[in-house]
What we know:
CATH superfamily: Aldolase class I
Bound molecules: phosphoenolpyruvate
Helix content: 40-55%
Structural class: alpha/beta
CATH architecture: Alpha-Beta Barrel
Radius of gyration: 17 Å
Number of strands: 8
Shape: globular
CATH topology: TIM Barrel
Amino acid sequence: MGDKLVIGNWKSNGRRLENEALLTLLCAQALEPNIGVGVCVPYPYLDQVGRLLEGSAVVLGAQDVSAYPDGAYTGEVSVGMLADFGCRYVIVGHSERRALFGESDQMVARKARLALEGGLVPVVCIGETLAERDGGEVASVISRQLEPIWAELDVDDLARIVIAYEPVWAIGTGLSAEPSQVDEVLAFVRQSLSSRSTQADTVKILYGGSVKASTAFDLFSLPDCDGGLIGGASLVAVEFLAICKAAAAVSNNGSVNE
Ligand code: PEP
């Protein structure tokens, strides 16, 4: 646990001029020393964003990676390439990739393993749809998504991943999950992790889904919440900075994760 982590997911957004304006504002603010902050940007902007972040505390990430190494995989971007651009984080298994691009639980686990082997930290996204929640299937869906991760990674590697619980119905909808709903799932994930790793307490578990400055403090204050994966709000400097401030405030309060 320890310091809170806030990671922005720009999704398929950005232009060079907009990126520069956003990151200039972000980097001009002294970020608190007791949080980690990253931005996961589209592949074409990795070089530009990497340069703009030089000398700042904000770290670079990507939003996906190939399930294959370098080679004859036309159109794919390998872990080695992401490392070459200085990425620290890579999101794997975002619900948009699972739903729109057919990524299986097994493929997500494989991407996570390749990311770790290449020296990156995979941010493994999991979460249920509204129909699954309404059907009382949250625990079984989360378990089904986690099992291949547990099977693919060895115990030491498990301690190096980040997990992001993102209920599909809360992503991009403006409808954040209630803290009590998030609390229940994060505790379940932590418990599942504990049965595999003695270092379960050190693994960062994030919440994602319509987090705003106004909701961040309460969500990040949950006992098993180590921060957030932020989509839409990460494109608005003042909002993203306020979310980072909320994360720092929770850490400063010492109310959680000491
Ligand atoms: C996301 O894309 O991971 C996400 C959480 O999006 P939003 O914050 O816009 O719901």
